[in-house]
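Posting for a labmate who doesn't have an account.
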Amino acid sequence: MADARYIGLMSGTSLDGVDALLVDFTAAQPRAIASHYHPYPAELRSELLTLCHASHIELHRLAQLDVMLGELYAAAVRELLNTSRTDANTVAAIGSHGQTVRHHPAGPHPYTLQLGDPNIIAERTGITTVADFRRRDIAAGGQGAPLVPAFHAALFRHAGRNRVILNLGGMANITVLPRDTAIPVTGFDTGPGNVLLDGWAARHRGTPYDAGGAWAAGGSVLPALLRRLLADPYFTAPPPKSTGRERFHLEWLEAQLEGTEDPQDVQATLLELTARSVAQAIADHAANADEILVCGGGAGNGALMQRIGFHLAPRAVHSTLHHGVEPQAVEAMAFAWLARQTLCGEAGNLPAVTGARHPVVLGGIYRGRLNADR
């Protein structure tokens, strides 16, 4: 079991599609064998975006979207297997994060909700599927996120370097990896990563994202707006903490606008917001970091990487590709690894990261078909 192949499925806060990654865990260093990106159809993405912000959810449609996403994830797996010419019988399990549409880890009744019915994935692919990773950590008193730091620690911790892994997804999060193994690994969501940048670009440019940060780079940062945005209490709240679209969205931004700002200058300010909040989080919680390894879609935003590098100088800032892992593959690989942890009966959370009372085995196991005809 420990040496088998696994598939990781990751669809993040950007709500653009699902990354499917086939991973080989035979060697000490996990190896990505093949990948496939399956975009969300425009109508489905629009419904999911609405669902993330709706004050009331119609249960019939919610259940339908759960099934629709399960079918889409299963299709992504089948396409991955077909293009890589991989026999489904050689895959031990699929780890599916699901699509987060609500994340409220605080309050008297904390909860998190990810869609993408794993029953559908297991039935359509015939492969055992592990899903619903977050809720067990919440049941143990944790935030349910971020969960990827446990994988970061297994893959990137170095005895001679104090490292920070920075994931620039829809939300940005950091994992602090001290070189001293007696010091626990920590991590948390720092705030918005790409989510506001993508949303503002879509509204004013009609594009899903600002490629390379070129539009933002042509604007000017608005100091007063930046101060108002950084004044949000989330940025100074102590970890453990996690966040999502339910807090950082375009309506949150609009509440801070005066209405006369140039849209390009707002984009430049949003880019600076991500860079400053990330840099401040590292300064506050990983001041002795020697290097920062960046993963996620934001690693391809040259303007954002330049501003992060500026704020974190003289520390080295570079992508995880320098250490053999494509930046876009890290999270999907993490959920393949988490599925493996679950099937091996090993904990997948880090209590020092999530705030859980103790380590727990994450996720539910949905067994594949009993016959070999998949």
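Reply:
Got it, the structure tokens are right above this. The chain has two domains: 5-143+353-366, 149-327.
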